[in-house]
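To whoever picks this up:

The nightly regression suite flagged VWFC domain-containing protein as changed. Nothing in the input moved, so I suspect the structure step. Input below, exactly as stored in the fixture:
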Amino acid sequence: EDQPHTAGEIWNGGIDECALYKCLENGSIIPIEPDCDEEPTPVCEREAEVVMGIIDKWTCCSKGVCGCDMTLCETTIPTCTNSQKLIVGHSPLSCCPQYKC
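Regenerated output under the current build:
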């Protein structure tokens, strides 16, 4: 496939999913299982932040990361008067947008 690899090299040959392969000394290629270490679950501290599971595209191992779940945000948007302008801000303590006039 015009993708040269060296002996002992491991790579992800999958397109939409993980498929790890290893190049052997004799030039043959074999599929291998990922070698995953158990990582501690991260502590998510911001408002509306939750642990989400992702697959690392280089190691094919699943791990938890903190991400925003916007469905947990209160979506109360104030009604501004004609002389006011709606401003959307963000706080380092929250994933949710902060609305004010």
